[in-house]
């Protein structure tokens, strides 16, 4: 098997937690929200969820919003530090590269699945083989570097790779490392547990009422001491952030995560709440089809980027909560590069000069794509206003996320640019591969990255020395930004509202909260 990287798919600033002082009435709208169906007698953590899951099977789902549900029912082989995404032990207590293409995992002893069957090396082999080979798996690319998995003994797994891949431990902190019970699937890798998850996680699955709520109850035999911190969990599906904020203010839920940045002033006026905030890997950006018309010229792409005042963009669209994005990572990330960030500047005069050099002195009209929600439309208006200063015009054709993205990235390849976002991956090399590789779905023009780009990515996965990885990733990011293959705009900060009973809840750099440590006072 020949493996190519392109086939694969700093410390966090202190989190902002503050008591807020004044209030706002909850309103009668909360009457439409579902009531708890969990049994009386134990503490139940109630959470506002922002979307109905696509699936509760980690191998078959496809939405980034699924993780917040999956983390409750599944543990991962590798975990990560909330502030940095540095890998740490999970179901695997240790891992070691015996040689560049052999990764050995040592497993936690005494772990069982919710159905009572043992978690062991055979279960890990079943899961990894299912993830990389089953027809129903949506995460084959995540583990494409794996060529063979061996259950060496009951608590040891040997993973053989087609090429060196030091990013694999962090990849195993995501969907690919979520362990499902083979017995619950009848040991059939093509079976699924979309609607009935059986893992080793803090809570056992209870119920799922589509579009309303998902519940779970404490897994008494969980291998972590004191985990979970509450007896039950209930996630209410409340897509609208305004309703979600009212829910936590009124006591309908204890936590409302991923609220809009523009809601922070409202949180500031609500009693008995705390704001939990911090940077995430969620980057608002313009995806560029570099194979279309004027956008084939890197000077045009660079001009579009240089005409954007990112500080003003953050203030206008995110109420000043967030940070300008000068690359595909936030400043808090260990692979963020000061040198690369300097390549992205606001200089409308130079932007005009670049357009003139490219033959567009009289201006440029673009076919733009986006989403119809109010926040997206506001972002579009800010971009168009800034581009107008250099003679660039355009019209956004908006459609729901799935439709607009499918038309832009898929076979139709409609539109010059798409205003959307990138939600990040635990390891940045996977982000860079998925965004810029020639055959990647997220590279709409299927344009080859600059010479040396793929080699730099491969170099980042051939070493586990972080300094060497930082240098290799900086080289790759520098090449991508010089070619302006996409236009990063801003970093979204987590904006979560919690009530005064919540303890031990923190944001994380991935932007997808975990609740296993949360207790209720």
From TrEMBL:
GO terms for cellular component: ATP-binding cassette (ABC) transporter complex; outer membrane-bounded periplasmic space. It comes from the Bacteria. GO terms for biological process: peptide transport. Pfam families: SBP_bac_5. It is found in: Periplasm. Residues 86-438 form the Solute-binding protein family domain. Its main location: periplasm. One of its GO terms (molecular function) is peptide transmembrane transporter activity. Belongs to the bacterial solute-binding protein 5 family. This is Peptide ABC transporter.
């Amino acid at each position: 098997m020949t493996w190519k990287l392109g086939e694969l798919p700093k410390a966090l600033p202190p989190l902002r937690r503050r008591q807020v002082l004044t209030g706002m009435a909850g309103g009668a709208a909360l009457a439409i929200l579902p009531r708890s169906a969990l049994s009386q007698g134990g503490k139940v953590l109630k959470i506002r969820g922002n979307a109905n899951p696509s699936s509760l099977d980690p191998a078959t789902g496809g939405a980034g919003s699924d993780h917040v549900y999956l983390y409750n029912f599944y543990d991962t082989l590798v975990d990560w530090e909330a502030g940095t995404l540095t890998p740490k032990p999970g179901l695997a207590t240790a891992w070691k590269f015996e040689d560049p293409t052999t990764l050995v995992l040592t497993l936690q002893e005494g772990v069982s699945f919710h159905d009572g069957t043992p978690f062991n090396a055979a279960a890990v082999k079943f899961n990894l083989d299912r993830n990389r080979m089953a027809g129903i798996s949506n995460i084959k690319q995540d583990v494409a570097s794996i060529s063979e998995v061996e259950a060496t003994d009951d608590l040891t797994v040997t993973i053989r790779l087609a090429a060196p891949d030091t990013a694999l431990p962090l990849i195993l902190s995501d969907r690919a490392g979520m362990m499902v019970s083979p017995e619950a699937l009848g040991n059939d890798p093509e079976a699924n547990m979309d609607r009935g998850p059986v893992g080793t996680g803090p809570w056992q699955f209870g119920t799922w009422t589509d579009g309303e709520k998902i519940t779970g109850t404490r897994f008494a035999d969980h291998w972590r001491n004191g985990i979970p911190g509450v007896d039950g969990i209930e996630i209410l599906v409340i897509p609208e952030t305004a309703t979600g904020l009212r829910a936590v203010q009124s006591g309908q839920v204890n936590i409302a995560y991923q609220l809009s940045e523009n809601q922070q002033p409202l949180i500031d006026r609500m009693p008995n709440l705390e704001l939990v905030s911090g940077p995430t890997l969620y980057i608002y950006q313009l995806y560029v089809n570099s194979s279309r018309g004027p956008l084939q010229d890197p000077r045009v792409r660079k001009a579009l980027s240089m005409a954007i005042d990112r500080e003003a963009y953050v203030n206008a669209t995110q109420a000043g909560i967030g940070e300008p994005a000068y690359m595909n990572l936030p400043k808090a990330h260990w692979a963020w590069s000061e040198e690369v960030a300097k390549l992205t500047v606001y200089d409308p005069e130079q932007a005009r000069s670049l357009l003139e050099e490219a033959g567009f002195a009289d201006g440029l009209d673009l076919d733009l794509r986006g989403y119809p929600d109010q926040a997206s439309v506001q972002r579009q208006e800010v971009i168009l206003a800034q581009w107008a200063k250099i003679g660039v015009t355009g019209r956004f054709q908006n459609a729901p996320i799935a439709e607009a993205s499918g038309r832009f990235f898929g076979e139709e390849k409609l539109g010059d640019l798409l205003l959307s976002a990138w939600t990040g991956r635990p390891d940045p090399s996977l982000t860079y591969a998925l965004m810029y590789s020639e055959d990647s779905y997220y590279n709409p023009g299927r344009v080859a990255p600059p010479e040396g780009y793929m080699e730099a990515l491969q170099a980042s996965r051939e070493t586990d020395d972080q300094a060497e990885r930082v240098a290799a990733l900086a080289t790759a990011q520098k090449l991508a930004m010089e070619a302006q293959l996409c236009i990063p705009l801003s970093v979204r900060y987590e904006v979560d509202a919690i009530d005064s009973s919540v303890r031990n809840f923190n944001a994380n750099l991935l932007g997808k909260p975990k609740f296993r440590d949360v207790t209720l006072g």
